[in-house]
Design goal:
This protein is of the alpha+beta class. Helices cover 21% and strands 30% of the residues. The chain is built from three helices and five strands. Strands 2-1-5-3-4 form a five-stranded mixed beta sheet, with helices on one face.
Length: 105
Amino acid sequence: MAAERIGVEVACAEAGRQTVVAIEVPAGCTAAEAVERSGIFALHPELDPAACRVGIFGHEVSQDRVLARGERVEVLRPLPEDPKERRRRLAREGRSMRARSAGDG
């Protein structure tokens, strides 16, 4: 008898592009195994797999989290700058993190 397989998605987003890979994995597969099986890092070679974490539907999880059918595993890239430090730096410069609209000049 063949082992049960489940369908999951593995997603990775960078500025300007997002990749979503739908794969089937054996039941009992972990988030880390799904990311590896998806080949997503070959599609995003600029990312360091050791520096990335994983999430499911926007919530960070451990890499050994066992997946359920239909879940979306997301590769969480490291932030380029700590948000608290960025706010402090912008405050020192007299700026804020609020988004500028197209009409701001």
